[in-house]
Amino acid sequence: MPLASLLRRRRLLIPAVLGAVLAVTATTAALTLFLTGGGPEHRAVFLVDASTVAAPKAGDVYDFADVTDGVAAAALNAADGDALSLRRFGGACGTPGNTAQVVADATGNGRPIADAASDLRPTGQATLHSGILAAIDDLSGSDATHNRIIVITAHGTDACTDDHESFERDVTRLLDSGNASLDFRYVGYRLAGEDRDALALTAAATDAPDPVQTDTAEDLAITLKEFTVPSSYEAVLAEVPRQTASVTACTTGENHMGREIGPVPSALVLPEGFALPSGTALYGYGDGGFLVGPSEARCTMLAIGAAPGTSIEVSAADGARTNLQFGGSAHLHPSAACAAFGGIAPELEEKLEDTHWEGYCKADGSTKNVPTGTPGLYIGVKQWEREAGDPGTLLPEGSASFSLSIADLQEGIATRSFSCEAGKDALDLCTAAFTYQFLRLAEDRGTSAEEADRVSGEIAAIISNAV
Fold first, then answer.
1. Which of 11, 222, 318, 423 is the most exposed place for a label (fewest CB within 10 A)?
2. CB neighbour burial string for 187-203, b if at least 16 within 10 angstroms, e if fewer
3. Contact call for residues 313 and 292 (beta carbons, < 8 A)
């Protein structure tokens, strides 16, 4: 597959079929009539997560007042001529009261929304999807030039369902029947990693930009104000939502002695610009860990002791496989980092001063370093060959084997090693497996899109030119 296809920009196609969730929200959505002609230019719905949040959250005490204060400030800051409304969600799954319109749509609604928001009290489960579908119905038939739903949530997940495909169909049905053009903005407040992934899936299902994640009351208030100023409606999105992929959960091997596999989501939003090529799939091993491997394969986690760490392997019947090694004894991290990046990464020399590694941290020359443009982040690719007669593979003669080394030296010395083996006609597997891991790190570290595309291109070139 050409690199342009692997790193293509995406367009989300949503089938127009009504799903089961609509039946829940149809009875909850308030009927709003919009008179044609002379209406406001902008309409916005504040959709507030008023469900119960366990405390402490992410090591901190969650304060619902941060959310209501942010909504109040944004509403009071909005232009008097803009129409605003307030809707809450939170309650029991499958009941009409799990979402409700608190303040009906009208201009000059800043003070009423501010007062009503301060009166909200958290209750029940996070019925996120029901709230979104009802908010779409609130704007059905709107005559405004710009219509927006601003979702503020401290969960990211829907407590009642994780079926994003059904939700996507319901969204499309309502948009098609509502005769109004609208957009969505999502704001997560103090979300954990798995909640962020879930909220990204919901955003993708509504054709929205990636959610804005906030961790302080100040950042939340600033973001909400930005989403309600008129200039924000005029912005043209540079990217359509990212692709999502189904996730297959790994299993533990027979001699597994390490941690158990944690919860694995059924689907995941892929990194910006990345698409799984044909013949590959995404596998999850818990705690936010994922690995690209051959499709219709078996993913196994194996930990046989502290020193070698944990191994995740995806292996197919034809011998194609991908593998990840991580963890293990602390001395393995400097060893792996030095073998790949010794003399290349100045951070290594600084971190290894006054240790037995000082003066001995040298790369072995077998790994081709790919500069990332991100301080403290190093990656390298090398090709290797199995010994003749090695029974460990079913691959035919002439197949190729590669490894990807990653060292994150931002704080300590953290390394991970990936390997991939495939036939020469199936090297898209290795390119995809390695590119995926880099792009996930690049997103976390704020690597620019230009640098991410460059590095991805170099990884693909090394693999394609090595055989």
1. 11
2. bbbbbeebbbbbbbbbb
3. no
Sign of dihedral through CA atoms 18, 99, 218, 69?
positive
Instruction: Work out the burial of residue 433: count CB atoms within 10 Å of its CB; fewer than 13 is exposed, 13-18 middle, 19 or more buried.
Output: buried
Taking Cα atoms as reference points, which of 195, 182, 377, 158 lies closest to residue 269? 195
Cα–Cα distances in angstroms (integers) from residue 108 to residues 85, 138, 325, 403, in the given order:
10, 18, 58, 61
The conformation of residue 443, written as its DSSP 8-state character, comes to: H
Rounded Cα gap, residues 190 and 354, in angstroms = 39
Residue (of 98, 53, 46) closest to 72 by Cα position: 46
CA distance 352 to 334: 8
Rounded Cα distance, 152 and 148, in Å: 13
Looking at residue 29, what is its pLDDT?
37
Nearest alpha carbon to residue 149 among 68, 44, 234, 72: 44
Q: Is 416 exposed, middle or buried (0-12, 13-18, 19+ CB in 10 A)?
A: buried
Distance (Å, whole) CA 259 – CA 261: 7
215 with 176: CB under 8 angstroms? no
pLDDT band at 90 (very low <50, low <70, confident <90, very high): very high
For residue 67, pLDDT beyond 80:
yes
Model confidence pLDDT, tens digit, residues 357-386:
788 888 888 899 999 989 999 999 998 776
144-164 pLDDT, tens digit each: 888 999 999 998 899 998 888
- Asked if residue 352 lies in contact with residue 334, where contact means CB atoms within 8 angstroms, the answer is yes
Distance, CA of 33 to CA of 141 (rounded, Å): 8
